[in-house]
Design goal:
The protein has 2 domains: 2-156 and 264-341, 3-Layer(aba) Sandwich (Rossmann fold); 159-259, no CATH class. Strands 1-2-4-3-5-6-7-8 form an 8-stranded mixed sheet, sandwiched between helices. Helix content is 49%, strand content 15%. The two termini are 14 Å apart. By secondary structure, the chain is of the alpha/beta class. The protein is built from 16 helices and 8 strands. It has helices spanning 2-15, 65-76, 87-90, 97-110, 127-136, 140-143, 158-166, 174-183, 185-188, 192-206, 216-222, 225-236, 238-251, 254-262, 289-299, 324-341; strands spanning 23-31, 34-42, 50-53, 80-84, 121-126, 146-152, 275-280, 305-310. Helix 2 links the parallel strand 3 and strand 4.
Length: 342
């Protein structure tokens, strides 16, 4: 009964954010390799259970208000909530270092009795970061410390996810612009103007700027004709984008090893904790088939896994559907599965 109430409180407060009597403090996570900044959310009379909430590839990084709202909602449900900050995520960098940093932080968290009195914790992770978190806990010494994990909109295969984003023009451009930011130096070399162009495009999108507020038009007007052409053709030509990606991978031999390490479905063999996979049925950034793929791979060894593709979620925001009651019950059950084991 208690976890039912906690799930209801969480879902209520995700739609109606309330800081209330939740205390928030800046802190650090100590690890063998260094420190990680973090924010700690809790009520004075909170449970001993800790949920670690990690941000996705949002433009504001660990300061993303959506993550803060989720943290408040989890804290209103009674949990301790810790939100670590990872430099690679905050700079929108696709790099295996994120996984190594997560592993260091996770071990450090379990040593901090003031925040993690049980010596174990649960994970709540969205988007591309969810896939990286699954890889990070696929290590025996870390898996033993994880009580439960919920992944919202995870990728499964790095190459298929990239091909999906690059292969469409009629979807949000945020994902493909992150790819451009990460891989253009391997094709064209470092270019300050291209840096400014892609950063302006990401910020215009991430901050949801109006046409009058957008910085990109001015940056493009001041850029060289060659850089304007590169940007224009990257945005509109699917075959050119795929060739761009092929050249980036050929020019940097490290990517072959990186992609192997970043492939979620090839790094799941040690996961035995309960796993809840939730995905927007109409997600246009990472298709729900990616989470379905993860579900099948985990289910081969671990029956404590659930998968839900729901029309109530897109790639980051809850949307109202005509079938909200039926789909809402399904979404409740998926989150309840997570909280039951948290």
């Amino acid at each position: 009964m208690q976890t039912i109430q906690q799930t209801l409180r969480f879902l209520f407060h995700t739609n109606f954010p309330k800081k209330g009597n939740v205390e928030v403090s800046a802190c650090t996570i100590e690890s063998d390799r260094g420190e990680f900044k973090a924010k700690f959310y809790h009520k004075k009379a909170c449970l001993e259970q800790l949920i670690v909430l990690i941000n996705g590839f949002g433009i504001e990084g660990s300061n993303d208000q959506r993550i803060a709202n989720l943290a408040y909602a989890l804290a209103q449900a009674g949990y301790r909530v810790l939100c670590p900050s990872f430099d690679s995520l905050n700079t929108l960098s696709i790099h295996p270092q994120t996984i190594l940093d997560m592993q260091d932080a996770f071990l450090g968290i379990t040593e901090d009795q003031s925040k993690c009195p049980e010596g174990k914790f649960s994970l709540f992770v969205p988007s591309y970061t969810a896939g990286m978190a699954l890889i990070a806990i696929n290590r025996q010494d870390i898996q033993e410390k994880i009580k439960s994990i919920v992944c919202v909109g995870s990728y499964a295969n790095i190459e298929s996810s990239i091909n999906f984003v690059l292969g469409q023009n009629d979807i949000d451009d945020y994902g493909r612009n992150i790819l451009f930011k990460n891989f253009y130096p391997d094709v064209f070399g470092t270019d300050n103007q291209l840096d400014q162009i892609v950063q302006s495009a990401l910020e215009d999108n991430g901050y949801k700027r109006s046409e009058k507020e957008k910085a990109l038009p001015k940056v493009l007007a001041e850029a060289s004709p060659a850089d304007r052409l590169i940007w224009d053709i990257y945005q509109r030509d699917i075959s050119w984008r795929k060739d761009f990606m092929r050249r980036a991978l050929e020019n940097n031999p490290r990517y072959k090893e990186w992609f192997k390490y970043l492939n979620v479905v090839d790094n799941l063999e040690h996961i035995q904790c309960p796993v809840s996979l939730i995905h927007g049925a109409n997600d246009l950034v990472i298709p729900s088939s990616e989470s379905a793929f993860i579900y099948r791979k985990i289910f081969e060894r671990n029956k404590q896994v659930q998968f839900l593709a729901t029309p109530l979620l897109d790639h980051g925001d809850i949307q109202v559907s005509s079938s909200i009651i039926n789909d809402g019950i399904k979404l409740f059950k998926s989150f309840h599965f997570f909280f039951k084991h948290a």
